Amino acid sequence: MKRRDVIRLASAAPVAGAIAGGLVPLQSVLGATVPKSLLKRDLIKELGLRTFINAAGTYTTMTASLMQDEVMEAINASSKEFIMLNEVQDKVGERIAKMVHSEAAMVTAGAFSALTLGMAGILTGTDPEKVKRLPHRLEEAGIKSEVILQKGHYDGYEHALANTGITLIPVETVEDVDRAVSERTASMHFLNCNALEGKIMHEEWVRLAKKHNLPATIDIAADVPPVENLWKYNDMGFSFVALSGGKAIRGPQSAGVLMGTRDIVEAARLNNSPNGVTIGRGMKVNKEEMLGMYAALDHYINQDHDKEWKMWEDRVAVIDEAVSHIDGVAVTVTVPPIANHSPKMNISWKKDKIGLTRKSLGEKLREGDPSIEVISWGKEDNSIDLTVFMLKPGQENIVAKRLQQELSRASS
Ligand SMILES: *Cc1c(COP(=O)(O)O)cnc(C)c1O
């Protein structure tokens, strides 16, 4: 572009909004050098996408959570500059590690990726030959090949560990652990949200791992709030902790954090982009998400958590008030003890009083305007579940009104 064109373009920028508003076709005035970003486009409208009020929760398929403003500011600002990617990971990792009481940390492409990379780090250390070898024929290359996991801790996400080529060894009791440990054992993994489904709790798991000179690892993907969980398991002695960035923390949905010992995080990074063509090459995270993740954690840790909890309770009260007086309707509020620890409402109704099913009410809410998603899948019965922590301020009133309408309309 000639210097004159740049000046012309810069002076044109302030009026671009008015032009794009429909007065004059922008391209014909300024020529082909106009960046598309000057044209205000609404892609959601253009593509005919359905947006909805999320009264379900942090489900990946629903795009989970809305990023905090601070996150988008970090993303936008860093998108305008080049920075060496490893330098971003170094600095962001250092800051995050301090926040969560770990020796080291790195931003990953989600908790799943943190699990795979952390596991890979344990297996390979800093040996480049081992890094190249994953996920095949581990034993031939002198790589440990088994991970011990309690039977009650299988929920599917252990696939993240198995991606490195390891085999999972199920155990139930302390004696099982002692028997299962061999020269092939790489680590002992714990799924925090299933803690109550196992016979061995956190401290004992860590103690057992120490006894056998093995790293204990833990998946706490969806397990804030409470905020203290961000450092609790590092303080307890787990060698790595995997966290989701895009759930209650409201960082980038495609980001997460691996926190752990210096050795494991350093080795995990060797298995990840941009440090070679490795098992983690497809788990690329760019500077925007790294800085966005850092901004999200910083904001999350420093926010007023009591105030947030009170806001959730107020939202629950609004919805409860709108529907609980309807004949045949009952509302119960529970708080899941570990994962997605926030108020969850169950709204149920008597079959003979209200002609709706779980699925049909879910569909009516979805098809309304605005569209609302609740938890209406799973076993078909006369109730729906919902959470309020992903609502935008004020949306509880819309959810309350729509529920009241549909339940009243269907009552005999
Ligand atoms: C959500 C979740 C994951 C995956 O987290 P991502 O950040 O989506 O990769 C892993 N483990 C558990 C227990 C989860 O709830």
Instruction: Quickly count the domains.
Output: 3
- Ligand list: pyridoxal-5'-phosphate
How would a crystallographer describe the biggest sheet? 7 strands, mixed
Q: Looking at the structure, what is the overall shape?
A: globular
The name of the CATH topology of the largest domain is Aspartate Aminotransferase, domain 2
Top-tier CATH class of the largest domain: Alpha Beta
- Uncertain spans: 1-31
Q: Share of helix among residues?
A: 40-55%
Cα gyration radius (Å): 25 Å
Please state the average pLDDT score.
92
Total helical elements: 17
Strand order of the largest sheet: 2-8-7-6-5-3-4
Q: Can you tell me the CATH superfamily of the largest domain?
A: Type I PLP-dependent aspartate aminotransferase-like (Major domain)
N-to-C SSE string, H for helix and E for strand: HHHHEHHEHHEHEHEHEHEEHHHEEHEEH
Number of strands: 12
Structural account:
With 412 residues, this protein is α/β, with parallel strands linked by helices. It folds into 3 domains: 1-40, no CATH class; 82-302, Type I PLP-dependent aspartate aminotransferase-like (Major domain) (Aspartate Aminotransferase, domain 2); 305-409, Aspartate Aminotransferase, domain 1. The protein is 42% helix and 14% strand. The protein has helices at 3-12, 16-23, 26-30, 43-46, 69-78, 85-100, 111-124, 128-133, 159-162, 174-180, 202-211, 229-236, 262-270, 287-302, 305-323, 358-367, 395-409; strands at 53-54, 104-108, 146-150, 167-171, 185-191, 216-219, 240-244, 256-260, 329-334, 344-349, 372-373, 383-387. The strands form 3 sheets. A 7-stranded mixed sheet has the order 2-8-7-6-5-3-4, with helices on both faces. Helix 11 (202-211) links the parallel strand 5 and strand 6. The chain starts with a helix and ends with a helix. Mean pLDDT is 92; it is low at 1-31. This is Selenocysteine synthase. Keywords: Pyridoxal phosphate. InterPro entries: PyrdxlP-dep_Trfase, PyrdxlP-dep_Trfase_major. Its cofactor is pyridoxal 5'-phosphate. GO terms for molecular function: L-seryl-tRNA(Sec) selenium transferase activity.
